Amino acid sequence: MRNQKKFVILLLAAALLVLSFAGCAAKTATSASTSAAASTPAASAPAASASASTSAAASASASQTTGEKPAIKFYGKCIEYTSGPMMTDALEKALADKYTIDSIQIDWSNMDTVIRTGIASNDPCDIYNYPASSMANFADMAVDLMPYLDADPEFKAYFSQAELDACTIDGKLVCLPWESNFSVILGNKEALDKIGVTIPDAWTMDEFNAACAKIKAAGLYPFTNATDLNRAAWIYRNAILSVAAAEGKSQDFTDGNISLGSDESKQALEATKALYDNGYMYPGEGAVTVKNDEAKAAFYQGKVLMMPEIAAGAKQTADGAADFTTVLIPWPSVSDKGAILGGMNCLFIPKNAKNIDAAVEVLKTYLSADIQKIHADQGYIPANVNVQVSDPFVQKVMAQAETFKAEPPYSSAVFDYLNNSLTADLVLNGGVDTVIQNLQGLENAG
Fold first, then answer.
1. Phi, psi of 20 (to 5 degrees)
2. Assign residue 220 a region: left if phi > 0, alpha if psi is -120 to 50, beta otherwise?
3. What's the CA gap between 241 and 334, in Å, rounded?
4. 331: DSSP letter
5. Burial (0-12, 13-18, 19+ Cβ within 10 Å), 219
């Protein structure tokens, strides 16, 4: 009997531990304040599933009985962007007459755990943030949103076909984007002009190397690439994307059908290594360990004339240059076809959400041009194609999004190697053959 009691106590403790991790399951909704409402396609859209319709109806019925507004748990508040809290505040105000929306801060480092635990608790958030490139992890748990968009042409017109394609898995639209992000290159316009480097709309790696040689001859460093913040392999990753695109294999690469030990990979590694071997990378011998703060400081001081940045941070970094005008520079392509790595942060609705129809309406409102414009006005890249952007710099950043491609969902081991070991191995510890061997080993290990 004593052992049975201990067993029961242990079970209860385990259950409480699970609930403590259910990020949305235990959240208490907060109140919103003013009014306005967006229309929803739910009335005419086919239900995602019988259980979804039942849960939505039950939730609506309960709210009518108690006189309370339905509560929506929105796991999508991004405090890392200046626009994030502003967007969720606007969302809460826009639907204040209809819903009590609890905007929950995204825990990026524990996002998978939060989502899985919430769904497993059967009391998930109604909407979750997650990257499109990894949505295969939750595709079976997500509501197919295409019936709602098909029933609401206005809603569907928020997005480009490329965006919808990137959010589709096995014929189902499992999420919708709220922003895109990709890598760009920033340049010191006055210094480049003085040296006689003309920035084209697109250029090959050979043309980029020729420009770098001019800059080096002037006693300055042409380029830098931070090795922290998951940026270390940006040159290589963009290079292999451009090779795949030139061969008409972009989708094969995205689907993981081109090995990192392939000829395409070797070509990209050779082009990357040449930049370091030729002394084009700041600060010379320490180029394989330079951190983002160091790289940015050198760029602002005029020691290095070109540096990569994420699109979401490009405007802020450009505005921080007090002594020169910052211009956007295209990524050099190893082949004759430009391509840059990128991705999208998206929102999805779990199938066991309590009020799916209401969640769709919240999605439509959050992704509307009015709220997406807040994101754009802060210098970020909105997903809604109807957003009118007035800032010329942000317009140019958005134009570069036309060539961004998704990467395959690398294993954690491959991603760790790309970000922490590839550059040093390529430049200092064995070169191209060593990197190819290491990448193949990681791929074979699964």
1. -65, -25
2. beta
3. 9
4. P
5. exposed
Which letter does DSSP use for residue 284 in this model? S
In sequence order, what are the beta bridge partners of 168?
173
Residue type, 444: N
d(CA 69, CA 31): 10
In 67-160, which ranges are continuous DSSP H helix?
83-94, 111-120, 146-150, 153-156
Question: What SS3 state is found at 342?
Answer: strand
Cα distance between residue 362 and residue 41, in whole Å: 11
User: Tokens for 415?
Assistant: 């991603």
How confident is the model over 110-124, as a mean pLDDT? 94
Count Cα neighbours of 360 within 13 Å in the Cβ-side half-sphere: 32
Bridge-based pairing of strands 172-173 and 127-131 is: unpaired
Q: Report the chain's terminal Cα–Cα distance, integer Å.
A: 47
Q: What percent of the chain is predicted at pLDDT more than 70?
A: 85
Count of H helices and E strands in the chain? 20, 11
Where are the strands (E) in 78-208, listed by range? 100-105, 127-131, 168-169, 172-173, 176-188
Residue 280 burial (C-beta neighbours within 10 Å; 0-12, 13-18, 19+):
buried
DSSP string over 202-233: S-BHHHHHHHHHHHHHTTSEEE---SSTT-TT
Q: What is the pLDDT of residues 392-420, one digit of tens each?
A: 898 888 888 777 777 777 887 898 899 99
CA angle 289, 407, 280 (to 5 degrees): 35
The CA distances from residue 81 to 217, 321, 331, in Å, are 39, 20, 25
What's the rounded Cα separation, in Å, for the pair 420 and 435? 12
Helices (H), 330-391: 356-366, 369-377
CA distance 306 to 293: 14
DSSP-based three-state secondary structure for 169: strand
What contacts 158, CB < 8 A, 6 or more positions away? 367, 368, 369, 383, 384, 385, 386
Write the DSSP assignment of 39-66 as a string of letters.
Answer: --GGGTSPPS-HHHHHHHHHHHHHHHHH
Band (pLDDT 50/70/90 cuts) for residue 153 is very high
Domains contained in the chain, CATH given: 36-180+344-397 (3.40.190.10), 182-341+408-444 (3.40.190.10)
Alpha-carbon distance 39 to 217, whole Å?
Answer: 61
